[in-house]
Design brief:
It contains four helices and four strands; from the N terminus they run H-H-E-H-E-H-E-E. It is α+β, with helices and mostly antiparallel strands. About 20% of the residues are buried.
Length: about 120
């Protein structure tokens, strides 16, 4: 399941003309719950993108801690996420995140929603 998600992210980077050869670009083929437990990954990334996360509330605690100050997490979801977003709001704040926007796909026949979250400034 993680290989499919990594393939999607590589495709997305190619569509954005961002080469994987740049030293600051990394697609990790590892489950977020494992990746987030590795100390070197905490507060280390400007962007965290993932595809078809199980629930936002569950994924917040793995994805938001990976973000640098003012970093952005984008979760790629199915169309209806309003209830999920409401349930996850307290998780966002507890993990140092702030829900920034929910954007629905404008492509006809493609019922996808993107949930963007920004990490709050960290007091170091």
């Amino acid at each position: 399941s993680t290989s499919k998600k990594a393939s999607f992210l590589r495709f997305l980077l190619s569509q954005l003309n961002i080469p994987l050869t740049q030293p600051h670009v990394k697609v990790a083929v590892e489950r977020a719950e494992v990746f987030a437990k590795q100390r070197e990954n905490l507060r280390a990334y400007d962007w965290v993108l993932n595809r078809y996360v199980r629930s936002l509330a569950d994924s917040v605690e793995y994805c938001v801690p990976l973000l640098k100050r003012d970093g952005t997490w984008i979760a790629y979801k199915q169309e209806k996420v309003e209830d999920e977003v409401q349930i996850a709001m307290s998780q966002f704040q507890r993990c140092g995140g702030k829900l920034e926007s929910v954007v629905k796909s404008q492509i006809p026949g493609l019922n996808r929603t993107y949930v963007a979250t920004r990490a709050l400034p960290i007091n170091v």
